[in-house]
Amino acid sequence: MTFPKGFLWGGATAANQLEGAYNEGGKGLSIFDMVQFVPKEERGNEIEMDVRSKKELEDLLAGKGGDNFPKRRGIDFYHHYKEDIALFAEMGFKTFRMSISWPRIFPNGDDREPNEEGLAFYDKVFDELLKYGIEPLVTLSHYEIPLTLVQKYNGWTDRRVVEYFVHYAETVFNRYKGKVKYWLTFNEINVSTMSPYIGSGILIDEVEHKEQAVYQALHHQFVASARAVKACHEMIPDAMIGCMLARMEVYPETCSPDDVLEALKEDQMNLFFTDVQVRGYYPSFMLSYFEENDIKIDMLPGDEEILLQHTVDYLSFSYYMSMVASGAPDKKKEKGNFFSGVKNPYLESSDWGWQIDPKGLRITLKKMYDRYQVPLFIVENGLGAYDKVEEDGSINDDYRIDYMRAHIEQMKEAIKEGVDLIGYTSWGCIDLISASTSEMSKRYGFIYVDQDDYGNGTLARSKKKSFDWYKQVITTNGEEL
């Protein structure tokens, strides 16, 4: 009982953190193109990524308040994709998780006709991957909402955006049906509750009832996801299409029933999203939450049937850390990956305060498989750290190897215990722009990219020590760690 034959080892990225070329090839602006860099010394471990009001957005578009928008430049994968994919192939990748930039295909989101230059770019990327036998794993929406949909409709709060998304999904399914077999609908769909702008394109100052707007937008995304699943099954019968959750395993701080109950509530609120997409309906605890918080979801006739009939083929998730819940309201909270919780004294933390918990990944795998009984896919996991380039050019990132080895060991144990795990794509397999902080200095990759937080550098690629280590992991199908 170990990693199954055909296990999908690889790496994960997102268009908005990787591609650059934000104003080339007919691409429109996305929501992440408007997120500025804020130095860590100014914000601490806080996440600075939301644009909250129409006025703030208009000021950013007018050039007021700075000019460092790191996600516009990424690491210029747009012009370096052949070089980068060759390095992924050298590591032995079986799959490469990437996203299609929605505004590269439909610059305004509501366009009738797609942008051919954008479609042609991804044709070239997929062809390059397939040349090396690497299966593309493609996310349809990875924080990449066209900015025009924010300006005209306040993002996913408007039901019309469902139709625009389905049109986009059907367009790319039709174009790439002979090249892409693995799809995901929305990346970390639950992030909308923490960051309405990034998750759902909502300018939160433009709505009266924040939670009402967020959960209505999420309902529209659930419907859009189910309709994309339906279209994918009809258009690409041999494909698999899944959902994606930012998973946060939560422990009670003590065995106090108050702490245990709080941890249970937080776990339910995290798994609500996959309950809808995997089981096909809103769980009763969420209906109770809506009633208690005066949230009324506007459902159209047929929505419930769509959700029930078109559930996903597999469940994918990101896992970086675990959290601790306390029933005491005055407990100091630690920040990390959009979430916050009480500090766990039994765990070490990364340079960014994220608590490192390999065994928590095994707990999550077992818990989620027990709950859903569908194939699982870990599509993000990795360590963001400061890397030092030595005088000879080497980068000895043993801390990254230790982190990944410990997590992969726990994956292996979960498989032995009966979990159906189909793949693992390490986050940021090549250094890219951080989603949560827009830093370049927060590095995840096996491949170093010469660029700093301000865009200075040659963009030269070089291998870290972890490159050869991960190559060996893949070569031996996880037997040599």
UniProtKB/TrEMBL annotation:
Keyword Cytoplasm attached: no
Gene3D superfamilies noted in UniProt: Glycosidases
GO BP terms, alphabetized: carbohydrate catabolic process
Keyword field: Glycosidase, Hydrolase
GO molecular function: beta-glucosidase activity
PROSITE patterns assigned to the protein according to its UniProt record, in alphabetical order: GLYCOSYL_HYDROL_F1_1 (PS00572), GLYCOSYL_HYDROL_F1_2 (PS00653)
One GO cellular component term: cytosol
Active site per database record: 380
One Pfam family, short name: Glyco_hydro_1
UniProt key word Transmembrane: no
Family: Belongs to the glycosyl hydrolase 1 family.
PANTHER family the UniProt entry points to: 6-PHOSPHO-BETA-GLUCOSIDASE ASCB-RELATED, GLYCOSYL HYDROLASE
Protein name: 6-phospho-beta-glucosidase
Organism in which the protein naturally occurs: Trichococcus pasteurii
Upper lineage: Bacteria, Bacillati, Bacillota, Bacilli, Lactobacillales
